[in-house]
Structure formats: structure tokens, C-alpha cells
Amino acid sequence: MRELPLADVLEVLIDHRGRTPKKLGGDFVVNGVPVISALLVKRGRLHISEARRISHDMYRKWMPIPVRENDVVLTSEAPLGRCALVRSGDPIALGQRVFGLRSKPEVMDGRFLFYALQSDLIQERLYGRSSGTTVLGIRQKELVKIRVPVPDLPQQIAVAEVLGALDDKIALNERISRTVSELTRAVMAELWGKAGVTSLVRGDAGVPGGWRRTTLGVLCATGGGAIQTGPFGSQLHASDYVDPGIPSVMPQNIGDNRIAEDGIARITVADAERLSKYRLMEGDIVYSRRGDVKRRALVRKYEDGWLCGTGCLRVRVGTATEPLFMSYYLGEPEIQEWVAQHAVGATMPNLNTAILGEVPVVLPPADTVRQVNERLSGLDATAAHLQHENRTLSELRDTLLPQLLSGKIRVKDAVRTVEEAV
């Protein structure tokens, strides 16, 4: 298969290194055109909802060459080499630390370029031409020298369609998952609304008869549970992280009430036995101890036996109430805001067992909790299934990608595999 340098493949290369609104005579605004930074390029997608924005007048100055559908956004540093496909013609501005790449349509399909840049081969070449001591990055003059595989155009389109079918299914599952999240929030909102509970954190806000106000620490102690800090880094050594090994949940693995298994750290069996008091059990809730302290995740059955890793806190409610209900209670915006406000540290928010122990808890009667828990269980199971399916689909895509690019697997065979998966 022939290869060409990116310079011969690209029709447009957008590089706005150092560009800011102030340098163009303005500033960010509340509503307007989103500005894409490197941090918004995640898992092949642009997380536009998290973007800062500029006015439409500023956008016209900022983007004399606008981004089009099927252009590729590539991060140049911090982190290097992440890609996202532009999936619509809606206006976006490219900020610092990202390139905008548009392939020559007669040479390369834009979607194929998106997948090719994610391959191990091209990622190695990106890092091979990078520079920097503390932060690795690549400059435009080095980027355009990187050679990429260029099969015949029909083959490119076929490969992109196969891999795109998997990404489309992943995107659909993510949309369904967001809907499920909205439904769980609605279940909790209905609970408070019917009971007339106006605040979860204000002690002067009344609760119905049979309900009670307490704290998370008292609740855990009542049920024979506890709030515990995970092991500190001094209890481990760099050589302790192995693959395969015993999974150890770190802050970066804690999502929206779920543990992300991608990139999870693992420690030796011997160290897991030595740190057995940090073992996670079904129903435990894990918090990030520093940084984004609002994050927490419920430990499901299939995660039993994992460890609460460094930088984490473990909440075990014991028999006091339903752990699933409590995990969603702790995700209520009012409770999350309370936790964030009470975290200590000026530059980096920190949690400790004392702070978590004082989290206000409004607890309905046991029968009410069980009824709500049943409704949450069905939604939670759906969310877990979607997460598991997306992990499987992502692994299949990552397996097929190098095989399709190298020609080791025929497109029609890959199509059959993808049809069985989706």
C-alpha cells in the first residue's frame, strides 16, 4: 500500500497557535460560537457543550477558513494525538493546541483520515516527531512530514463506513444513556416534589413524618459501614502497577456514578493481599479525594474484589439504606454543590472522611426507599448494559482498525463482524 506525507494529502491545514479573543480585540461570551480546545477532544468526539464561546463577529475574524463536516480536529499537545471528526456544518472555532485537517477529496476520504490518524502506526509517528520536555507537542512543519497509508479511494470509503457503523452505534448508545440519566434525575425529583422537600441541605427545611434528616457519617455508622480513605502513594511503589493484576480504582476511573475500566491501574496480587482492607465490595461508593470532588461511582457486582486506590475515598453505608438509592442521592446537584463548597484547598479542592461524614442526608422511610430503588434499578441496569456494550464495540473498532488499514482483513469480512455486533 502506498504512503504519502500529510502535506500531499491535505487541502487545508488550520493552525491557530496562540490565538485568543483578547488578541483579536474581544473576549469570551456566554452565548455564541463554541471554541474547541485540546481538552474538548475526547474519545473521537468534540465535547462542544463544555466549550467557551465567542461572538459571531469574532468568529468571522477567528475563522477566515471555516471548518466543514468531515474535517478532522487533531490535538497538537496536552494531550498530543487525539482526534475528532467534525460531524456537522455548525460553526465552531478552533482554539489553541488543535489542528484542523481537511483532506483533498480526490486523494483521501476525510473519515478515513480520521481513523488512520488514530492507528498505532500514525500515533507512533506523531510522537516520533514531537518535541518538548514537560509537555510533548508537534509543530505544523513536522506534522506535514508524517506519512499516512493511502489505499484506493473506494477502499478508503469502505473502511470508513465499516468503522463508522461502530462509532454510530456507540453514539446512539451514548444518546440513550443520556436519556436514562435524565430519567433517573426525574425519579429523584419526583420523590422530593411529592414529599414537599424544598432543600436537601438546609436543616430548617421541613420533611414529612417518617422521614429524617441525618448525616452520611451517622448513616454509615448506623448500618455498620464506614467512610474510609484509600491507600496513600507511599504504600505503593511505581513497580507495583502491573498488567495483568488486581484492578485498583483511581480518581480518573470515577465517572457519573460508574467506574470506567479503560486505563484502570492494576497492582500485584501480593500487594492486593497486603492492602486487603481497601477491598471494594458491591454497594460501596467511591469518591475522588481531590480535584473534581463531585465525582462518585457505585461499585457493581462485577467489580467485586477491586481495590479503592490512591486518591480515593470509600463510602460503605452498610445495612442503613439501599446503596443504589444513596449513590443517586449523592449525585443530586444540591448535594454535589455542598460537597464542592466544603472541600478544602484554594487551588486544588480536597475531600476527607470528616467532610464526607458531614454530608446532609434526607432519608425517606424504608418502604419509600425500596419503591424508588426498584425504579432506579431498571434504569441503572439499562445504563450498565449500554456502558458494557459500548466498551465491547470500542474494543472491536480498535481491533479492526489496524487490520483494515494494513489490508490483513477484507472489508466484507469486517462488515460481517460489525453486523453481528450491532
Low-confidence stretches: none
Main sheet properties: 5 strands, mixed
Backbone CA Rg: 25 Å
Ends distance: 30 Å
The CATH architecture of the largest domain is Alpha-Beta Complex
- Quote the beta fraction: 15-25%
Q: How are the strands of the largest sheet arranged? A: 13-20-17-18-15
Mean pLDDT over the residues:
92
Instruction: Give the number of domains.
Output: 2
Summarize the amount of helix as a percent range.
25-40%
Count of extended strands = 21
SS-based structural class? alpha+beta
> Could you name the CATH class of the largest domain?
Alpha Beta
The helix tally amounts to 13
CATH topology of the largest domain: Adenine-n6-DNA-methyltransferase TaqI, Chain A, domain 2
CATH superfamily of the largest domain: DNA methylase specificity domains
Which geometry do the CA atoms define?
Answer: globular
